[in-house]
Design a protein that fits this description.
The protein is of the alpha/beta class. It has a single domain (5-285), classed as Carbon-nitrogen hydrolase (Nitrilase/N-carbamoyl-D-aminoacid amidohydrolase, 4-Layer Sandwich). 23% of the residues lie in helices and 29% in strands. The chain has helices at 36-52, 87-99, 178-186, 205-227, 277-285; strands at residues 5-10, 22-29, 57-59, 102-112, 115-123, 129-134, 140-141, 144-145, 160-161, 166-169, 191-195, 199-201, 230-234, 237-240, 243-246, 250-252, 258-261, 268-275.
Length: 307
């Protein structure tokens, strides 16, 4: 099994040094295969590594337990799904309790016969399952045929009050929607965490790859700035069929500064110290939440305003 490379950064490199509570945030970037037990073992090793280096919250990539099977429409893949709570959430909860860390997982959830979701789970530092977020925005693009597998989420946008930080979970395609980030932040989230599986189509990388990666990172940094929160994305690496996953897992602060960024092609564990005082400092100086015109946003719930 490959050894996950260690990378540590500190929020002390932010624009302003704040006094306040600091929380270590760990991201596990890994290569997932078709072997679920090996993938789980690697993820558990990553959680342990992050915890040993001071992380209090550790997040995993999207659908870490398997290869990214949504590149094809295969009914047999539904057999991989599991209930929540289930064996994987139990394993993640045991790891959370063992190491005293919050664990954010990503599960192919079987809710009922014929009803499946792409879900994020949050186990608190004592192992308890705090809750489940179901991916709200479901893509249907070449090699991302997720609508075949997943029903859209029906629990709305959530914030989980963990022992260390208020965590909002969103998933991959949700990254592109400012409404999702805003509503999650309005529910009190101090961290927006995105389990992710995004990569390049082989034929597009040369011409569009740099632009695509830049846009992906930039929009999430914008969510951090607009909402005054920390943002983190844990992405996978490796080439799987028609996709080359670009890694680049990162954490940014409420000013949008990148505090740590993983490589494009190596398995790594990032550990970042996040100064929660920066949330208050940013929101006081850039009071976007204060100046929102909540009386003037009628129509946002419509698909498009024709008039």
């Amino acid at each position: 099994m490959p050894t996950l490379q260690s990378t540590t950064r500190s929020a002390e490199c932010s624009v302003v040094a704040m006094s306040g509570s600091s929380v270590g945030l760990g991201l596990v970037q890994m290569r997932s295969s078709g072997n679920a037990s090996e993938n789980l073992s690697k993820a558990l090793d990553g959680i342990a590594e992050a915890a040993s280096r001071g992380a209090k919250i550790v997040g995993l990539q999207e659908l870490f337990l398997s290869d990214y099977f949504c590149q094809v429409e295969d009914p047999g893949r539904f057999d991989m799904a599991e209930p929540i709570p289930g064996p994987t959430t139990q394993a993640l909860g045991e790891a959370a309790a063992r190491h005293g860390v919050v664990v954010i997982g990503s599960i192919f959830e079987k809710r009922a016969e014929g009803v499946f979701h792409n879900s994020a789970t949050v186990n608190d530092a004592d192992g308890r399952l705090l809750g489940v977020y179901r991916k709200m925005h479901i893509p249907d693009d070449p090699l991302y045929y997720e609508k075949f597998y997943f029903a859209p989420g029906d629990r709305g946008f959530l914030s989980f009050p963990t022992q260390h930080m208020k965590v909002g979970t969103l998933i991959c395609w949700d990254q592109w929607f400012p409404e999702a980030a805003r509503l999650t932040a309005l529910r009190g989230a101090e961290l927006l965490f995105y389990p992710t599986a995004i990569g390049w189509h082989h034929a597009e990388k040369k011409e569009f790859g740099a632009q695509q990666h830049s846009a992906w990172e930039t929009v999430q940094r914008g969510h951090a700035i607009a909402n005054g929160v920390f943002v983190a994305a844990a992405n996978r690496i490796g080439t799987e069929e028609g996709l080359e996953f670009w890694g680049g897992s990162f954490v940014c602060d409420p000013f949008g500064n990148i505090l740590a960024r993983a490589s494009e092609d190596r398995e790594e564990v990032l550990v970042v110290e996040c100064d929660l005082g920066l949330i208050s400092e940013t929101r006081r100086n850039w009071p976007f939440l204060r100046d929102r015109r909540i009386d003037a946003y009628g129509g946002i719930e419509r698909r498009y305003l024709d008039e």
